[in-house]
Every structure is written in structure tokens, then in C-alpha cells.
Amino acid sequence: MWETVLSTLRAEFSDVPDAEQVTRILTRLLLAALLGGVLGYEREHKGKAAGIRTHMLVAMGSALFVLVPLLGGMLPGDLSRVLQGVIAGVGFLGAGAIVKQRAEENVQGLTTAAGIWMTAAIGVACGMGRESTAVISTLLALVVLALLPRPDVPPRH
């Protein structure tokens, strides 16, 4: 009986055939978590609702959505439907962060929504093995979020 259980478990976990594959999965998912965490830390540090954990999960989830089909043999060119789903799904997540007040010009959460969307794109880059692109994109997003001043827009009357 135990032999059957062990045999079944071995078969169920056979999607990772060797150490090279395990290293690839860990590298891509951990980098996605790290880069998402960097952006999330910046947002949390500014007191925004979507912080480090949200950004880490969005980045890792996005990476996983493209990593699994690639490891399953799907060609990168055939990932368009997967990417469309990730982009649309994260768009809905970001939409939940946007709050419109009574005044038409008083909308909050747009930067948070855009940051979540950017984090998903960085996660996709990690999942596809485009680590340099993901790091460069994270640095550019940090420049936008942390270094560019928010313009003071006078209220409309």
C-alpha cells in the first residue's frame, strides 16, 4: 500500500524533472516576489493600501501564469491568450483600488492601480525569463513613484 502511495506522489510531482528546472522556477518566482516587494514597499512607505504583500502576490501570480504554460511546452508566441487574461484580470484588481469622490476632479487610487498593473507586467517578464527587463522596469517604476514629484494641481471651480 505505501509503495502505491509513494509511487502516486512521485508521479504527481513529476512536473519538475531535474535540479535545473527547480532552479529556473525558484529564480523566476523569487525575483518576481523581490521586485514586486520593492515596489510594494515604496507604496506602503507612502501609506497606500496596496503594499508589499499585494505587490509581491501580484508579481508572483503573474509570473506563475506564464511560467507554467512555458514549462508545459507552450511556445512563447502562443502565450497571447494567457497574457490577455493576466492583463484584464489585473486591470479589474486595479479598478478596485480607484475611488471617485463627489467632485469630478477628486479621483484617488489611479497611481496605485497603475502600480499594480506595472507590477503584473514585471511579474510576467520574470515568468518568461526576461530577468534583465524586469529589473530595469522595476528601477524605472521606482523613479516614477519615488523620485518624480506629484504636481500640485489647483482645484477647479
| Regions with little confidence, pLDDT below 50 for 5+ residues | none
Cα(first) to Cα(last) distance is: 78 Å
Spell out the helices and strands N to C.
HHHHEEHH
What is the alpha-carbon Rg in Å?
19 Å
Question: Helical percent range?
Answer: 55-70%
Membrane topology: Multi-pass membrane protein
Domain MgtC/SapB/SrpB/YhiD N-terminal: 29-149
InterPro entries: MgtC/SapB/SrpB/YhiD_fam, MgtC_SapB_SrpB_YhiD_N
Protein name: Protein MgtC
In short:
InterPro entries: MgtC/SapB/SrpB/YhiD_fam, MgtC_SapB_SrpB_YhiD_N. This protein is mostly helical and 157 residues long. It has helices at residues 2-12, 19-45, 52-71, 80-95, 110-127, 131-147, and strands at 99-100, 107-108.
For this entry, give a set of tags.
single chain; 157 residues; 69% helix; 3% strand; elongated; cell inner membrane
Task: Write up this protein.
It is a multi-pass membrane protein. It is found in: Cell inner membrane; Cell membrane. Keywords: Cell inner membrane, Cell membrane, Membrane, Transmembrane, Transmembrane helix. InterPro entries: MgtC/SapB/SrpB/YhiD_fam (IPR003416), MgtC_SapB_SrpB_YhiD_N (IPR049177). By secondary structure, the protein is an all-alpha fold. The protein has one domain. It is 69% helix and 3% strand. It has a two-stranded antiparallel ribbon with strand order 1-2. A hairpin with a 6-residue loop joins strand 1 and strand 2. Helix 3 packs antiparallel against helix 4. The longest helix has 27 residues.
